[in-house]
Amino acid sequence: MGDDGNRAGGSEEPRWDWRPRARRSNPIGVLLDPRVDPVAEVEVFPTGYVQDRLLLSNAGDIAANIDLVRRVAAAFGWDVVPQTLAGAPLEGERIPPPPVPEGTVAIRVELRPVATQGEQRVPAPPDAWRVLQRARSERSRDLLGVGLDHVMTIDPLGLNPYTHTNPYTHTNPYTHTNPYTHTNPYTHTNPVAEYALPGRGGHQPVAWMGPAPLRRPDPIKGRRPVVAILDTGCGEHEWLDQVVQRKPKDVDGKPIGLVNDEDDPEIHPDLVGPLDGAMDPVAGHGTFIAGIVTQAAPDADILAVRVADALGVVEESKLVEALGQLGGLLHAWRTSNGKQGRPIDVVNLSLSYYHETPKDLLFDRVLFGALQDLRKNGCVVVASAGNDATDRPSFPASLWPWPGADNKIQPDTFAPHVSVGALNPGGHTTALFSNVGPWVRTFAVGASVISTSPAFETGLQALSRHVHDDGRLREAGDPDDFRGGFGVWSGTSFAAPLVAGRIADALGQSLLGDPAFANDTPDPVPAAIKRTETCTTSVVDVLDASDHSRGPSMP
Question: pTM of this prediction?
Answer without folding.
Answer: 0.87
